[in-house]
Structure formats: C-alpha cells, structure tokens
Protein 1
Amino acid sequence: MQMKRIISTALLASMTLSMNAVHVRAEEEAPAEKQSGYVLMDIPYDKFYEAEGNPDVDAVSSATLNKPRTGTLAGGSYHVNADGTDISGVIYPVYVEDMAAIAQETQITDESSVTITVRNRGQETTTVYEGKDALFESASYSYYILDEAPAYYKVLSGADGAYTFSEVKGEAQTVEGVTAEVKTGARHADVEISLSNTAGIEKGQRVNAVVLTLSDGSHVGLRHIANLWRATEIGWDADEFALGNRSITNIRYITETAVIDYPVDINLGGYVLMDIPYDKFYAAELSADDPAVDAVSSATLNKPRTGTLAGGSYHVNSDGSDITGVIYPVYVEDMTSILNETQITDESSVTITVTNRGKETTTVYEGKDALFESPSYSYYKLSEAPA
C-alpha cells in the first residue's frame, strides 16, 4: 500500500509538470495583439483617387524639375525622385488597423530630414524638411506615426504593398457661391479655371487633392502642378481629358483638416464664327441622295477674294483660285477640341488687293472679318450666343 501511494504521488507530480509545460507553450504560441494607429502616409495618386471615383490618375512626369521639389508650389504632394522628374501622389492621414501590415515601408520620424535645393526664376533656395515634412521627398507608402486621431483620414486595407484605401472619412461641408473664370488655350494649360469666393480655401493654401464631378456622374482627380496651382486655380491639357458636352457640377477640395464641396455649373462649350468647308456645312442640310457640295475652283482669281461679291464665304488660297466654304456661327461643346485650329482675334487682319473691271482695290479685313481668307475651321470666339 505504501508503494502504491508513492507511485501515485510521483505520477501526479509528473502530470502537473506536463500540463504547466503545455500552458507555457500555448502562451508563447498565442498570436500577438494587433497594434492599430494613425499615420501620415505617401499615397500614390491612383491609389488615393481610386475610392474617390477615378483610379486612372498617373504620377506627374515633370520637365520642370524645380517645381515638384518646391513645397510652396507642390504642398500636399510628395515625390519619389530626388531629381524633380515626378510628383508621385498625395500625403494624407491614414488609419492602419494592424501596423505590422506596413512594417516593411519607410518610417519617417522626428529625427528624419531631407535637404532640397531648387532654383526658381533664377533664385536658388535651400529648404530642410524635418520630421513629418520629410515625407515630401520619400518612397511611396512612407509613413509618420501620428500621436492623435485626425478628423479626416483614409482607411488602409491589405499588406506588404498590396494596399487599397477607403474614401476620405470625415464630415464634408458644402459652400455655395463659387464663381469661375474659364480660359481655353491659356498660358499654363489648354483649360484654366480661376475660382473665386472659395470660402475655406485660400489662394496659395496647401491642398492635398481636388476631385471634379461631371454632369454624367463621372469624376476626375487633379494633380499638383499639372492641374492644380496656387490652390484656387485648376486646369488641364486637351490630351489629358476632354469634357465633350459634359459640365462640371461640383469641385471637392480635400485637405488634412477639411473636405469642402463647391457646387458649380462650369461648361467648356462656347460659340464661334467658323470657316466651314462646303461639304461639311451642307452635309446636315441635304439628304444622303443629294450630290456633295465641293469647293469652287475659280479661274476668275479676283472675285473669290472680293468681299462684296463673295461675302459669307471664305477661301484658303490667297491666289484667288478657290472658294472653300461658308463662314457661320457654331456651338462647340468643348472648346479644347478646336485648339489646334487657327484662332482669329480682334487683332487679326488680312490685306487683299484685287483688280475688277480694270480697277485695283485694296481692302483690310480686320477682326472676325479676317476669316474671309483663312484656313478651314479657323474660328473667332463670339461673346454672346447667336440666334
């Protein structure tokens, strides 16, 4: 009996040790608790705008090597290349559910800094970007850990570079009364729009992103320097995108501290007086069975260039060998579609000398009248809609 009690006690001690060992291993193998947090992150344009309605927004390939690296001009953006050849995307607050998902990305800290020297308008300037500002020139998905939850942010999903981002979280406000001055064929871009009465956004303010809503419900994301200048000026070239007969119904500004919607009604259409070839003019006026209307090939070289005889027409050849078509008012749905054509302005003029019945006459055709001798599809902008 004594021997049995000794064996039972030893067996019990062994079982206890074994159970403790299993418990210790279970604690060691238990997954660590996820650490969530908010960061300021470099987000590529296409990833940023994907949830805002336009995923096809490329990085800016810039030949202006100083502007992308100038914080006062490209604030709210970041670039990867230190040579100034790109603007890669947007710096914006992000909520990360599991910080381990971005552990392999570049972390910017308060000790980080980058020194950038640029030359604008002949003046060289050196700026040191420290702490979170060093995100301005860093790799995509670089991040800086924030101490507090921001009011506006995106939510990151995915890991190891395969990221997606939600739409901007935070309450948007609507501001009415914005006015727009639209120029086509302007100095910076084919379309330039200067906005006024933009309460909440001031000229020169740092802006992270701008989203245009079009009348068909589609969206366009704008990029710094290429499409966004001095906060309140926006624009684009005709080869970037064309509006056609669509108008802009809303302009959304996104900053780190606000999301502001500006309802607008901006139409890029306009009325012009245009040189239209005969066949193009008559195509919609005749049936399919009617013969085509060709240009006039004239042997009477003076009459085609005499306004009192050929008024309402135009000719391309200055030798008087043709009458090409009709001068007529036209509504153009998107003015960028005719930017490659010859624009006639109030400063335009053409001098024509003709001899009719032995009498030589010289006439200067100025302003819109210069369309009389000009290439097909030349146009003169009208200030009012014609009847």
Protein 2
Amino acid sequence: MFTCRHAFLCLLSIVGILHPATHAAEAPEGFRPLFNGKDLDGWQGRPHFDPRKLGEMTDEDRNAKISEWTAGAKQHWTVENGELVNDGHGAYLVTNDEFGDYEFLIDFKTVPRADSGIYLKGTPQVQIWDYTDPGKFGIDSDLGSGGLWNNSAGAPGKNPFVLADNPFGEWNTFRIRQLGARTTVWLNGQLLVDNAIMENYWDRKSPLFAKGPIELQTHGGEIRWKNLFIREISPDEANRLLSAHQQQAFQQLFNGKDLTGWQGALENYEVVDGAIRCKAGHGGQLLTENEYGNFIARLEFKLPPGGNNGLAIRSPGDGDPAYAAMCELQVLDSEHEKYAKLDARQYHGCAYGMVAAHRGYLRETGQWNFQQVTVDGSTIRVELNGSLILDADLSKVTEFMAERPHPGKDRTSGFFGFAGHNDPVEFRNVSIKELAPSPKKKAE
C-alpha cells in the first residue's frame, strides 16, 4: 500500500532533503561530502573525551594523543563498498573540521543490541540504539533513536517525538540541523526534535560550544554509515531560521521604514536600509509606546568596531536604564581591545552590573546577530545566535558592580527599547510576544 508517509518521503527525496539510502549518492545541492567513500581521509580517532582537555594541551601533546587515538581507531574502522564500517569497538571517528551552524545528512544501518550515536560539536549526542531491546526500555530505548539523550531529564529534545527507526537490516537517514545550540533532528523524514537547546554535557552551566567536530560514536555492535554530507549555514540564513521558529505569535515592533510606534529620543535615531540606527555621537532611550510585563523579544543587531548600546528592559521611560529599569542588557563588541579589562558584568548579554553572561557567541563584528530575550517575573534569559548566554533570577542578586544598587530591578512592567550610548549600533526585525502575567506571590 502506498501510504501518505511513503508519499512524503518521496517528495523529500525529490526536493533534495533526503537522498537515496540504498547506494552512494551525489552530494545534494549546497552540500559537500564528509566521507570520500574510499578511506578515512579527513577523520581522526577520539574516545569519549572532553574537548576542553584537548584545548588545554600543548600542540605537541595534542598531536601525539590524536595520532595514538587515530591509530587505534583504524583497527576497528574499515571501508567496504563505499560504507564506513565499525565492529562495535575502539575509538570513535571524528571530523578534522569543526562546524558552527550547519545541516548534516547521514545514513546508518546497525544490528540488534547495538548502541551508538552522533556527537555534535564534540558533545553527546543524537542517540542511536536498538528500540526493540527490553533491557534498555527503562532508559527509553523503546521510544526510538534520534533524541538528544544526554539532555537533562524532562528537557526538550531528550526523547524523540515519534519512533521512526526502520527495521534492522534497512538503512536509516538522519537530517540534523544546528543553529548555535538549537538542534533539529529528522529521521527517515519524520521530525523528532524541534529547535531544542542541546545541553553542554561537559559543563551544564555553560552553553554548548560555538564550534566543534561531528563524531560517530559506536559501541556494542556493528554499525555502518554512508552518504555523509554537510552544508554550512550562513549567519543571515541562521538568523532567518531562528526568527521563523514559532513566529506566528510575535508582533512586529518596527515597520522597517520609520519610527512609528516608538517614543523617547527619536531625534537621536535614524532608519537606514531597513534598520534602526543610533546616530553616532548621540544617545538616549528609544522606547516602545506600549509597556510590557512578561514577554519574549526577538531582534537582530549589528555592531560597528567597539560598538556599545543596550536593551532597556521594563524601563520607566527616564533615568539610566541600567539602574532605573529592571535591567539593561548590554549590547557590546565584547572582544574589542578597548574593552579588555571590563568587569565580567559589563560584556555583551549581561544584566549590566548584576549578572555576567557567557562570552564567545557573538558573530564577527559587522555581521548581523540574532538575539532572543525572555522576561518572566524576576527571571531573564538571553539567547544569542541560538545559544543561551544568560539565565538569571534578578530577585536573587545581592552583589552589584561598584556596590551601586539597582532600584529598578524589581519592576514588573515597563517599556522595551534601546539605551543609546553614542555608537551607530543597528537593530532590525524587532518583534515581541507577550506572556501571561506572573502569579501573585502569597503573603508570608
């Protein structure tokens, strides 16, 4: 019987999302092969190993360790008829190259009782295992492959939406996309994980690494891989994809033409090429006409070299937003040399003067960045280019930079906007989604 699912898979194959899983395929348009079908060129060996420890080694020690692992891997990895084959033992196989935002295609075929996975950015993992093995039903093997199994219990993406594995003896096709830590997984044409944040297994208090290799894990049984293709995603495409996710509930705050709907220091801002730009040498707050309590805001921003601005969160409309508003979220070219000696609570994404954000996730100066800010009660979360760089409860902050208090940090509503600071920082695609009010706290 030709089912709707079969029709869907055929359509995906026609448009190039899937590729034939029965023989070696040409790289789909925009993709390049990661495996040449002949040997292990472009790959190295590595066991389950914290990549940060590799970074701490000297070049000599690192190269020696990789050579040792690679020699061991070659005892267990072979190439047969254009397929990568592992016998279930030895070091894993890791790409020499590292990737940031990308889309990855790969076919696999495994055997009963096997257990495997795909490490992304050197981090475990998109799970592959025997979904028929009762011995592992207690850890959710019966839900099927494709989940981000090393995410915390209950976290989005840990388990797949549906069981999509083909029967043993048949090939399976993964399509995996990563935008920062935001990870989407399809298996055999079915969506299993939708834009979930992949946690940093090696340090759960930090975001997933900005870049890293793809790693083929294997243990417990033979697994075969073929048709490995990758397409690196540009910053502009990554921004569009991040912005498009569940965008229906968001209201545009900027029409791309003028400052209709905004108030404050209107004379100090201008609209250039569809973006709001602070005039050089000018400042002051540019704020929405409406006030907001709990919300999610999305926007893109572009920094000039050394650029400085900020997002005013629940601003009263006057005063210094870093202190009078709930907070000012710093917008800063953090890696510019003139900012080398700032307090940790002054860099990009920080709740200025109160809570430090993780660094290393800004795009190169002059490129557009995507940022999402979630304000819910006293908590604030900042995602930069798909990576969670700040997750803070401001009601618990008791230590302030220079011991200067922030009287506005407990505000429950206010205006949203930009703080100024004299540099020509640009903003575009500004939107907001209101969230339900926070429940009232019971009197003690």
Protein 3
Amino acid sequence: MRLRVIEAATAAWIAELYRYDWNRQARDEQIPPDNDTWTTWLFLGGRGAGKTRAGAEWIRALVRGRAPKTPGRASKIALVAESYADAREVMIEGPSGLRAVTPHHSRPNFESSRRRLVWPNGATAYCFSAEDPDGLRGYQFDAAWSDELCKWRYPDATWSNLQLALRIGDRPRQAVTSTPRPTALIKRLMAAKTTVLSRATSYDNRDNLADAFFSEIAAVYEGTALGRQELLGELVDDVEGALWTWAQIEAARISVAPGLDRVVVAVDPPASIGPNADTCGIIIAGVATIGSAGVNGSGEQVGYVLGDWSVQGVSPGAWAERAVTAFHEFEADRIVVEVNQGGEMVRAVIEQIDASAPVRAVYATRSKRLRAEPVAALYERARVRHVGSFPQLEDQMTAFTGGAGKSPDRLDALVWALTELMLKSRPSRPGVRRLS
C-alpha cells in the first residue's frame, strides 16, 4: 500500500515537472534566439499555432529567479492587448496565459482593480489596451509582450507609446505574437534590423488542437487567401480581383474624425440564428464636408468608418439591441437595415427595442459586387477614412472579389452605410429599392 502511494506521488511529481518544463515541450520556433542582437521578437502564426504560449513562457523566463522570491532579469513588464479584457482573459488567465504556465509555488497574483500581475519575487506586469494608447504614458518598463498586434484599434499610437516606455534595465526587449495582416506597422517591424522573426502554422500545433477544428472549421478556409493568413500565418498582400487593396486601406487610416454632418448605423442581418449562424454586420459610419465651398456651393464629402459592432451567433433581439445601442452611443441620425432576410420583420425587431429610433429599410436585388463597386470607387478617390483599425472588416474588404464563398456580412453593412451617406443623393440605380 505504502509503495503504491509513493509510486502515485512520484508519477504526479514527474507529470507536474514535465508540465512546466517548457524546453521539453516547445517547438524550435517557440523559443527566441539566445543572443543579444535583437530587440523585438516577432512571432507570426496561424490560429492556435502556439503564439500565446510562446509569449507567456518568454515572460515567465524573464521574471523567474533562482528561487521564487529572488529577482529575475525583468521586473517591470507591459502586457498590451487589443483590449483590457483580452489582456486578462488571454494573456493572464487563459489556458496558455501567464498564470497557467507558472507552477503554483511561484504563480503571480492578478490584482484586477489595478490591472496588474504581481509575482512572489516582486516583478510586476501591467495590462494595457490598444483602444487606449495614452494609457501607456507615464510608465517605464524593461520588457513588454504585445499580443495580436494586427488587431489593435490604434496600432501606431499604441506602439509608439510602448516604445517610449521601454527605457529601463540593461537590455529592454519585447515579444510580439500575432496572426499576420499586411499592415504598415507589421511590415516595418519585419524589415527592422533589430527584429527576429519566427513563424508557425495552425498545423504545426495540431497535436494540441481539436480534430473538429481542422475537419469542420479550417477546411472551409483551406486554399483561400484568408486561410493562408489565418491558418498558415502568411502575410497575404492583395487578392487578385479584389475591390480593395491594403494600400488603399492603410492610406485611409486616421486616428480621429472631424465634426460630422451625419452618422448612420448600418445592419446586415443574418439569415439564421444560433452558434453557426452568419455574423450580423453592424457598421457605424459618418460623413463630413471637407474643404472650402466650390462652384457647386459645397466642399467634398468624405466618409468616416467609426465602428464595427458586428456580432455572431445571437438572437435577432440581441443584435437589434446592439444596433440600437450603437445608434445612441454614436448619436446617429438613423439605422439603415437590409430587409432581404426577413422583410419588414427585421425592422419590427429593431422597433421593439426602441420605437423612436428612425429606421430606413433597404432591399437589394443586385449582386454584392455590383453594390460594392461604387463604394470601392470612393476609396480609390481617397474619399473614405477609417478611424483606427477594423481587422475583420478590412480582411473581408481585401478578400472580396464577388465570387462564391462565405457572405461578407461586415462588408455588406459597410456598403449600405456609405451608400446611404454618400451615394444616395445620386440618381437611383436599377436593382436597389428603398423602403421607407
């Protein structure tokens, strides 16, 4: 009996030892080079490729001392994510986050009220959101980990403030883990002499992912440009035949919109509900008159994409409530909703949430590409701006050719919004009927 207890305890100890021995588990690309020539470790990979685990283990190695209460090589760390919630739920509390990869005897404590993580040896990591670039002002760090940089709302401003804060210690360094998108910032990082680049695909980490992910989800995207980006971790620039290019979108990016003449919330409802339903596209956009009055008595109209509040897998009441919330938060003039799926019932659902919200129902009879082409022309003439970054919307825009494939729900809502704001005053085009 005593022997069996000892054997069980020994097996548990060995399992625990292996669980936290990263050097035995890590693939080569999950460990940065062991030299002093780099400042930024950029790890680009597909979904589930092990990027988060690599970033968390790198921070853990920097913080770890020879004993739980002895200092390591880093003591003041910045954790920057798409949002504060992502910093906590992914980088700290997630299954591959900092607390999960650390043994119990040295596991850090998360102080939610102060948005910081504190290790037994005194090392401290603070959480920051790319939705609040100025939140980094006033801090200073000797290390940083930035997660999903390509999804950041204000990438340039957040990145600049982070670099200015990396100013203490003998060798301030940072790790960046992200699924790639061909943004200007990611291209600059890849080209920098002080950046070391690692890559991984979703398939590299197949042993740790569910079979259903590959048979049911990944299979839908294999062979597509989005699949190359999201599964293979490739930097996909432009898709042949797409209506938008990355250069157009990067040139359109700004941080703050001017005073706007009108704002609308556009909704592209899904045809079904449930966890596998299409996304309900919800895009907020505005328009302003820029420049001095010309011979026609007015300046040039410029459109501004303000928000992407799209949501997937919820009931009609839930997406309608979200659209109405956006209407009030952005002080919009009206809600524009496509009624192909559900007819007047779609408008009725919104009116149940707020009967006072003005709703314009639109019905499309032309193809998505024909409806999108006039809006794409506005981008070509530099008459649309993106206030920040909208990764999922922009992925749809740059991949959209008008061919068969998954419905570009966010893009559809964008087209309705900018059509309402900037193209509605033109002579009506056949194929689109407006229902008031």
